[in-house]
Specification:
Number of strands: 3
Strand content: 5-15%
Largest sheet: 3 strands, antiparallel
Order of helices and strands: EEHEHHH
Oligomer: single chain
Number of helices: 4
Length: 135
């Protein structure tokens, strides 16, 4: 089974005279594809789960892994903060354009009004999109 894409699946066995037991084993379709493994190995769920939890505890108890996890959390936090700052700068720039465009609209020739209005509408859409990203 080394290197295969087959995974263990959980299932429950019920017997009338004892409480249900949980197991992990290969799905039945794999026994059709791999008849040489017809002995159907299965593993009690608590054994597999306890082994996984023990391995996870050992991994998390290692100081080197703790530092690596903390460094990754810090890196992602800084990246998120940088993204927020970038979006806030972009939002400020768009708002400044809207303000200037509104002033120019008041001073514009009548034939320039439709073009300036379309430009303002585009900037307002950008402003709305940036506000959504910030939220």
């Amino acid at each position: 089974m080394a290197g295969s894409q087959r995974r263990l699946h959980g299932y429950t066995m019920r017997n009338s005279d004892r409480p249900p037991r949980r197991y992990y084993g290969l799905a039945p379709r794999f026994y059709e594809e791999y008849p040489q493994e017809s002995d159907r190995p299965s593993f009690r769920a608590e054994v597999v789960e306890n082994a996984v939890l023990a391995k996870l505890r050992d991994y998390l108890a290692d100081k080197r892994n703790q530092r690596a996890i903390q460094a990754e959390i810090s890196r992602r936090t800084r990246k998120a903060q940088a993204n927020v700052e970038t979006l806030e700068k972009q939002l400020g720039a768009v708002r400044a354009k809207i303000e200037r465009g509104t002033e120019n609209l008041a001073l514009a020739n009548p034939e320039d009004v439709p073009g300036i209005s379309r430009l303002l509408a585009r900037w307002r859409e950008q402003e709305t999109a940036l506000k959504l990203k910030l939220q």
